[in-house]
Amino acid sequence: MATAGKVIKCKAAIIWEVGQMPSVEEVEVAPPKSHEIRVKIVATGICATDYHVVKGIFPNVDYPVIAGHEGAGIVESIGPGVTCVQPGDKVIPLCVPQCGECNCCLSPKANCCLKAHLYKPVQNLMPDKTSRFTCRGKQIHHFQWTSTFSEYTVVPEASIAKIRNDAPLDKISLFGCGFSTGYGAAINSARVEPGSTCAVFGLGGVGLSVVIGCKVAGASRIIGIDINKDKFTKAKELGATECISPQDFKKPLNEVLVEMTGLGVDYAFEVIGRTDTVVTAFKSCHLGHGTCVMVGVPPAGSQLSIEPILLLTGRKLIGSLLGGWKLKDALPKLVSDYMNKKFNTDSLITHTLPFEKIAEGFELLVAGKSIRCILLF
């Protein structure tokens, strides 16, 4: 492309400091270096994690930063040594990389590559410890090596997946985080079995993706839980068999769920990111073999307190990161499954806005009015 090797000026949304909403600015995006790829982002979703970056409760973020980790685009140019993609390829940036070389990438038991940001104290620059973004002469930090809130972004080779060229980028952009996280939590992490009973705490975009996964896995009963009853209709459309609100009961919700199911649910999913809800979900599990999957990300520094006897009888508490997928390998197949109509994720997208209206998208998220808002460049 004519822009290869040159600095590109484009639009990006910068969070200048904690508590400040993203501001749309003109930024300069440097060319990719060795084993890096520059991507023209076509569509990007707004995830609750991005709001956590605004609020300063997501761990290990340096400001100013360009957030965004759920997007899809087209390769604009590649740096020396890149072999996995070519200019013009459709791609999804990966907020959890897959280097293919570390202990976790080589193990079938793990999907959190050791180059992932969760293992490093602070990792908001490219691997060579420099940034590809500048604005008004000031260095701007990367986020998760994705920074999809920029019309052009630069990612390491380990942080990108090539997908089929007929995939609609606006529809599959949420596969970079939201859908894959929820769907995989049911399919991979919990390994939901046919005929089982499931409870899903939180019916946002990720929680509804858990519902889709439970339905595909053959669960006979899927109980959706949220304080926002406006989400119940959508949840039932996607597979929930019933929905309840904690506010409708005077007793703890775990007691309600145990009464509803006999001895507790086979699988409970916490998709909110609160430690108290994790405990409630755990207590809702079948006392002898129930599995609670922590999908949401609690605030940095929070602690989890559980009575040991609840574990002793056989309950399990596990975590699920990005649905347990090795994303570089998994995303091409997930996109093909979507194209082959194995599941339909289109209804998760409730709002589509031009990128300049990113502030409006965040308002919809915070107000609980959107499941997923997609921004188009």
Strand content: 15-25%
Overall helicity: 10-25%
- Spell out the helices and strands N to C: EEEHEEHEEEEHHEHEHEHEHEHEHEHE
Assembly form of the protein? single chain
Main sheet summary: 7 strands, mixed
What global shape is seen?
globular
| Radius of gyration of CA atoms, rounded to a whole number | 20 Å
What gap, in angstroms, lies between the N and C termini?
Answer: 19 Å
Indicate the structural class. alpha/beta
Task: Explain what this protein looks like in three dimensions.
The chain has 377 residues and is an alpha/beta fold. The protein has eleven helices and 17 strands. Strands 3, 4, 5, 8, 9, 16 and 17 form a seven-stranded mixed sheet that branches. Strand 10, helix 5 and strand 11 (221-225) form a beta-alpha-beta unit.
Secondary structure elements and pairings:
Elements: E1 8-14, E2 23-29, E3 36-46, H1 48-55, E4 71-78, E5 90-93, H2 103-106, E6 133-135, E7 138-140, E8 152-156, E9 160-162, H3 169-172, H4 178-190, E10 197-201, H5 205-217, E11 221-225, H6 232-238, E12 242-244, H7 253-261, E13 267-270, H8 275-283, E14 291-294, H9 308-312, E15 316-319, H10 327-339, E16 349-354, H11 358-366, E17 372-376
Helix pairs in contact: 4-5
